[in-house]
């Protein structure tokens, strides 16, 4: 393909449907292998970010203490990801010897965790904080302890916002994990980065498409998980057959009996 | 509610396990090379394009029968590659002959008796309408004095001693008595560009300073990124002068180019260039690729040339 020449969609389809591009050889890692590596990088980062920021966000929202942490976390979003990555590689990579890629994996994961923490933290905090005071007071009035209120009342009520934070973190991490390839690691970014360097633009575009497809698939999975974990009372899906709200259902029934 | 939570948790765990399985299977593909040559036990580190370039991995295989066990993409002769070789993440790498890191780390350049690597003589690419006889004379004067060693020294001053590339360029011009002021390039205005690595920036500075001293009005756009970015600008005329490397620019323009010797590459390049661009004289100075190993690796396997890598280890 000549630089600047017309790029036919068929080239991209051709690249993606070539079975040789999906299989790994000892010398070369195929699409499946890089997809696995990409998902692996993302999972590590998301699990670490979730473990750090979800309890912290819930606690901040519940107690109202240390809200400045949320501000700080949001400020972290302004860090230029590639810059931080290169800086960390320069600091960390020389400490590792031999075949290990830990010197590059650790900086990449740090960068991805930094990216995933702010949306999860601030949404968990906002979710808990926005629970109606009446609901919270009622829970305390029923004799629930602080932790009980948090886990049985505030957490379920905050779940839609927590999910939305986690979903946006997931999307960002999946898209940004392509920079792992900038520092010798694998992942789907390999195709984007190598495609550019090798002037193999179908490969480059295919890499981008694969990242987009992975992001959509992950978001779909999380949307499903959200649908089955968030209480119907919160989503307003209760009594869907009769109407959008149980009160509407009652009204409808009354109307029906009156006309009958 | 509770059963649903458990179900979701179960799905999530299976997914995680399945996916992590994928991840670990992909990372375990590093060992096991076939044949039992020295190279088959080695991991090679280099830029992405080296994997597919005619004089890259395919060339090493064709000319020397050398097949490496695995390829790790590092960077284009930069700190990542040097670090990976130094720390043993890879065993052999693609570096540039002018790289000061080779001497600094006692790395060994494996000889290339079959001329696998195409010649990479330094050549200024100029817009034809800016290449007046005066401009040509100034630039070709520089070209005749550039040497690989001299270039390596200048890169060392910028990369290790952290000197300003413009000062290093001026110093070199003075040392080679090329800094004379005159009017041979008077009335010509040129925009000089460079790629984003020290050597190319130094070269662009040398051209710019010399032309300025000869009365040309010079603008510089240094540290432009990759060739994809600057070559179109050169073609369209928003850049007028660029320090290039005969082999690389040739394969960029003509993917199927096969020339390897300096004269052949230069001849092919002058043919391949579009009508509005012209290549001035090529310098003796070369910045070509080389297969580089550590001193310890070279001693362990008795490596002198690239061909030695194909021996049984």
Give a nutshell description of this structure.
In chain A, 73% of the residues lie in helices and 0% in strands. By secondary structure, chain A is mainly α.
Provide the gyration radius of chain A in Å: 24 Å
Query: At the fourth CATH level, what is the homologous superfamily of the largest domain in chain B?
Result: Dipeptide-binding Protein, Domain 3
Query: Overall pLDDT of chain B, averaged?
Result: 86
Binned strand content of chain B = 15-25%
Any idea what the shape of chain A is? flat
Beta-strand percent range of chain A: under 5%
What proportion of the residues of chain B is helical, as a percent range? 40-55%
* Domain module tally of chain B: 2
- Under CATH at level 1, the class of chain A stands as Mainly Alpha
Under the CATH scheme, which architecture of chain A would be assigned? Orthogonal Bundle
Number of extended strands of chain A: 0
Helix content of chain A: over 70%
Largest interface, with counts of residues having CB < 8 Å to the other chain, equals:
A-B, 44 and 54 residues
CATH C-level label of the largest domain in chain B: Alpha Beta
CATH topology of the largest domain in chain B: Dipeptide-binding Protein, domain 3
Which oligomeric form is depicted? heterodimer
Written as H for each helix and E for each strand, in order along the chain, the element string of chain B is HEHEHEHEEHHHEHEHEHHEEH
Integer tally of domains of chain A: 1
Note down, in words, how this protein is organized:
The complex is a heterodimer of chains A (260) and B (313). Chain A has 260 residues and is mainly α. Chain A has twelve helices and no strands. In chain A, α1 packs across α10, α7 crosses α8 and α9 packs antiparallel against α10. The longest helix of chain A has 33 residues. In chain B, 45% of the residues are buried. Chain B folds into two domains: 115 residues, Glycine betaine-binding periplasmic protein, domain 2 (D-Maltodextrin-Binding Protein, domain 2, 3-Layer(aba) Sandwich); 158 residues, Dipeptide-binding Protein, domain 3. The chains are: A mainly alpha (260), B alpha/beta (313). Chains A and B meet through α3, α9 and α10 of A and α1, β2, α3 and α9 of B.
């Amino acid at each position: 393909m000549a630089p600047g020449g017309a790029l036919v969609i068929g080239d991209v389809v051709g690249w993606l449907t070539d079975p040789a591009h999906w299989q790994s050889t000892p010398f070369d890692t195929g699409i499946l292998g890089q997809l696995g590596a990409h998902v692996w990088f993302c999972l590590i980062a998301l699990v670490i970010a979730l473990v750090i920021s979800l309890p912290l966000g819930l606690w901040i929202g519940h107690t109202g203490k240390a809200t400045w942490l949320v501000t700080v976390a949001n400020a972290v979003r302004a860090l230029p990801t590639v810059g931080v990555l290169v800086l960390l590689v320069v600091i960390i990579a020389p400490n590792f010897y031999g075949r290990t890629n830990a010197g590059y994996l650790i900086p990449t994961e740090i960068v991805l965790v930094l990216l995933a923490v702010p949306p999860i933290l601030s949404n968990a905090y906002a979710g808990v904080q926005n629970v109606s005071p009446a609901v919270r007071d009622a829970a305390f009035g029923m004799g629930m302890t602080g932790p009980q209120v948090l886990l049985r009342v505030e957490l379920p009520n905050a779940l839609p916002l927590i999910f939305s934070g986690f979903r946006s973190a997931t999307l960002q991490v999946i898209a940004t994990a392509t920079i792992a390839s900038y520092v010798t690691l694998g992942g789907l970014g390999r195709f984007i980065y190598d495609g550019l360097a090798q002037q193999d633009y179908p490969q480059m575009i295919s890499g981008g498409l694969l990242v987009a497809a992975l992001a959509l698939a992950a978001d779909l999975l999380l949307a499903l998980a959200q649908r089955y974990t968030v209480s119907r009372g919160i989503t307003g899906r209760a009594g869907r057959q009769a109407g959008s709200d149980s009160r509407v259902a009652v009204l409808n029934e009354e109307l029906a009996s009156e006309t009958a | 509610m509770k059963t649903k939570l458990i179900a979701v948790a179960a799905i999530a765990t299976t997914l995680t396990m399945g996916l992590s399985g994928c991840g670990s299977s992909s990372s375990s593909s590093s060992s096991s090379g076939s044949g039992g040559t020295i190279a088959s036990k080695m991991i090679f580190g280099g830029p992405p394009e080296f994997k597919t370039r005619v004089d890259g991995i395919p060339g090493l295989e064709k000319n020397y029968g050398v097949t490496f066990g695995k390829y790790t993409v590092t960077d284009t002769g930069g700190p990542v590659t040097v670090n990976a070789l130094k720390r043993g993440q890879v065993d052999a790498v693609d570096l540039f002959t002018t790289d000061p890191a080779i001497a600094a780390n006692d790395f060994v350049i494996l000889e290339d008796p079959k001329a696998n690597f195409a010649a990479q003589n330094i050549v200024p690419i100029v817009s034809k309408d800016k290449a007046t006889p005066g401009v040509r004379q100034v630039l070709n004067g520089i070209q005749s004095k550039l040497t690989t060693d001299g270039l390596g020294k200048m890169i060392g001053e910028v990369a290790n001693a952290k000197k300003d590339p413009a000062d290093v360029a001026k110093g070199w011009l003075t040392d080679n008595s090329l800094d004379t002021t005159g009017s041979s390039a008077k009335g010509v205005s040129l925009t000089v560009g460079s790629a984003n690595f020290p050597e190319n920036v130094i070269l662009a500075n040398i051209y710019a300073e010399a032309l300025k001293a000869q009365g040309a009005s010079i603008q510089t756009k240094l540290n432009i990124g990759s060739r994809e970015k600057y070559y179109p600008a050169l073609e369209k005329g928003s850049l007028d002068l660029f320090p290039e490397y005969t082999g690389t620019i040739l394969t960029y323009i003509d993917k199927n180019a096969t020339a390897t010797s300096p004269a052949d590459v230069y001849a092919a390049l002058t043919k391949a260039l579009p009508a509005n661009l012209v290549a001035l004289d090529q310098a003796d100075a070369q910045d070509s690729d080389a297969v580089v190993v550590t001193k310890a690796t070279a001693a362990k396997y008795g490596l002198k040339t690239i061909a030695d890598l194909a021996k049984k280890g």
